[in-house]
Amino acid sequence: MSDINITVIDREGVSHKLIAPTDMNMNLMEVCKSYDLPVEGVCGGMAMCASCQVYVHTDKHFGERNDDEEAMLDEAYHVKSNSRLGCQIPISTEMEGAEFELAPEES
Amino acid sequence: MIKTDIVIIGAGPVGLFAVFEAGLMKLHCHLIDAIPQAGGQLSEIYPKKPIYDIPGYPTILAGELVDNLMEQAAPFKPGFTLGERAETIDELPNGNFVVTTSQGTKHEAPVVMIAGGLGSFEPRKPIIENLSDFEQNGVNYIVKDPDQYQGKEMVISGGGDSALDWAVYFAEKNGFVHLIHRSDRFRAHKDSVAKAYKLEEQGKLKLYTFAEVKQLEGKQQLEKVILETKDGIVPIDTALWFPLFGLSPKLGPIADWGLEIEKNAIVVDTFDYQTNRSGVFAIGDVNTYPGKLKLILCGFHEATLAVQSAYKRINPDKKFTLKYTTVQGVQGFD
Ligand SMILES: Cc1cc2nc3c(=O)[nH]c(=O)nc-3n(C[C@H](O)[C@H](O)[C@H](O)COP(=O)(O)OP(=O)(O)OC[C@H]3O[C@@H](n4cnc5c(N)ncnc54)[C@H](O)[C@@H]3O)c2cc1C
Ligand code: FES
Question: Which terminus of chain A, N or C, has less C-beta within 10 A?
């Protein structure tokens, strides 16, 4: 078993402690959905909708933004320097203790 | 008033397959969709991506699956009301339903099937103060009937497939187009981006990267868009602006139709996928029930069962038995 603990702050500012498996090939968007957090994941995780945008509150980056992700964030709203697409962050042991915040919904 | 046997709200894969199943039982269908083309998420979100879990197809592109479904439904001559959103479902004294769209088009039928997926596709709008003033007067979020723009000068914004594809289309057709994008990276397919650069070399397309439309000007009709670019402010005279930033699905009016909703989906009875309103069915991604999976193949199954029940509602006294298509073939409508 290699579960990790992360914190996700929802759009109302409520913080949620989540336990995520590292061995199920899941990403952060999917973990949020599995906890019924209001993340739509319209494109199913293909970096094509930005509905899974999060702000990373931890210093670590968990990998760099990839090209598709950069291109999508270029067209998204409410983007900050610490924005990532949740679906492009695979759950890994490096994320233990990390904190994320859901970006506002687009209109 | 358009009259038919089944009004299908949503022309995604599930709505299209329902036309075929209904046709086998000699029922006519009419489809309504908010976007100008059929195919739902497959056409709008991932037309060029492969799908691997359609039984019998080890792999098929989403766009191809839609073409095949259209071909399969074609013998049953479905009607289409495209580019209009279904707004209301009213009941007539004779028990029939009337579905009215955003443009006021009315459709009457004894059965309504909602195959609305994740909801109707609505444009992602840029944040500009007086945007709504120009929405009927030069600003368009989708390209409907491209012929009407023949020979017209226009500005297109966006970096995804629809922005690039339309920019290329109009550059080739009209000989000139302005394309504006916030960065120099594009989400669109590489081929479309390469085509756009080629058209720029030929002087048919003017590309502004790291640029954004920030202001709109005009008395009533749009006359000018003002760009903010890395080299400063650039005004462009134009009466047409297409901000094509993609569409995202919104449940929208479905929530107001007196149906039981749970987690943004319509609760149905798995016996026949009927909703709490008798005669109104919900199939595909738009419904929910214990064990629901939002998959195309599950939607096909739901459509098949729902049509059986629709048949009994429409023809309460007629007998019908299941016939294999292998045995009876496909007898289309004249
Ligand atoms: C990127 C991606 C990859 C996918 N990959 C797969 C896969 O590999 N296998 C698989 O089985 N599934 C896959 N899916 C899921 C699949 O696309 C959906 O299950 C399928 O599209 C559902 O079909 P549908 O006909 O129910 O709805 P949709 O395809 O969502 O179509 C619904 C249509 O209804 C219209 N509509 C809704 N409300 C209204 C209204 N009020 N008025 C007018 N029109 C309305 C919408 O505009 C839309 O066009 C994927 C989805 C995505 C986003
Ligand atoms: S789920 Fe669509 S971009 Fe992440």
Answer: N
User: CATH assignment of B125-245?
Assistant: 3.50.50.60
Determine which of A42-46, B84-88, B108-112, B295-299 has the lowest per-residue pLDDT on average: A42-46
Ligand 1, atom 13, lies closest to the CA of B295
* B100 vs B87: CA distance, rounded Å: 6
E runs forming strands in B102-260: 106-109, 111-114, 120-123, 155-157, 177-180, 205-208, 212-217, 224-229, 232-237, 241-243, 247-250
Of A42, A67, A75, which has the smallest distance from its Cβ to B182's Cβ?
Answer: A75
Q: Is the pLDDT of residue A1 over 70?
A: no
Q: Mind telling me how many Å the CA of A45 is from chain B's nearest CA?
A: 12
Contact B247, B142 (CB under 8 A): yes
Tens-place pLDDT, residues B82-133: 999 999 999 999 999 999 999 999 999 999 999 999 998 888 898 899 999 9
Chain B residues whose C-beta is within 8 A of a chain A C-beta are 45-46, 49, 118, 124-125, 127, 158-160, 181-183, 185-187, 245-246, 248-249
pTM recorded for the entire structure: 0.89
Q: CB within 6 Å of ligand 1 — which residues?
A: A 43-44, 46; B 9-15, 32-35, 40-42, 45-46, 51, 53, 85-86, 115-121, 252-254, 284-286, 294-297, 299
Q: Domain map of chain B by residue range?
A: 2-122+248-328, 125-245
Ligand 1 atom nearest the C-alpha of B102 is: 42
Q: Are strands B241-243 and B155-157 parallel, antiparallel or unpaired?
A: parallel
pLDDT for residue A107 is more than 70:
no
How remote is the CA of residue B218 from the centroid of ligand 2, in Å? 37
Looking at the domain assignment, is residue A75 inside a domain? yes
Q: Quick: pLDDT tens for A79-96.
A: 999 999 999 999 999 999
Q: Does residue B180 register a pLDDT over 90?
A: yes
Pair B27, B130: CB distance under 8 Å: no
Question: Are B45 and A68 inside 8 Å of each other by CB?
Answer: no
Element (H, E) at B277: none
Which two three-digit tokens encode residue B191? 């081929």
Overall domain count for chain A: 1
Q: Which fold has domain B2-122+248-328?
A: FAD/NAD(P)-binding domain (3.50.50)
